[in-house]
Amino acid sequence: DLLLVGDSLGNVVQGEDTTLPVTLDEIIYHTRLVARGAPRSLVVGDMPFGSYHVSPEDAVRSAIRLVKEGGAQAIKLEGGRTMAPTIKRIVEAQVPVMAHIGLTPQSVHQMGGFRVQGRGDEGRMQVIEDALAVQEAGAFAVVLEGIPAALGKEVSARLEIPTIGIGSGAGCDGQVLVMHDLLGLNDWTPSFVKQYANLGALASQAARSFADEVGHRKFPDDEHSYS
Fold first, then answer.
1. What is the end-to-end Cα distance of the chain in Å, rounded?
2. Helix, strand or coil for residue 198?
3. 167 with 194: CB under 8 angstroms?
């Protein structure tokens, strides 16, 4: 239904420890490739760190580039109440916005690591207030990442817009996972990820078989050669 071209490409494609080094140009490039092969799905391009933090006007310019150059039909950005004015400004520029609250990977240094958010009364209220703020600002949906399942269900019940959960329980309106995680292409995945295949092991085995056959001159054989 929806394809999110996330800045998690920094981790699963580029081999970075965080999403912070990913640039807007890189997101535009990857979004353009996905959009070409997605005639039906809603394609959402992620706004990388630094592309929307300086000012709402700077954020609008970045969002417009993602739509014009990347082929995105909507953009996603991280942050709750503090980003509400920016969300409002982008929406006013006719670009649909998906919000992202809870565990926000671009805030990894501020949070002191990738930690579950929304625990305790104060944490719970912060997530709820963030969710209401992004809805009021005009977001058409919100990603809830890394919060307790009960809070994910509560926030989903309070909002009129859809919630998309990742590590936030079954009570959200929809779910998203990083493709490389669910396909088993990474050596390590978060505890909330369910692997639906182990393509990494299959790819390694295929590469080893190819190298072995080449080394023993079994490939290419007559079947795979031109006469």
1. 47
2. coil
3. no
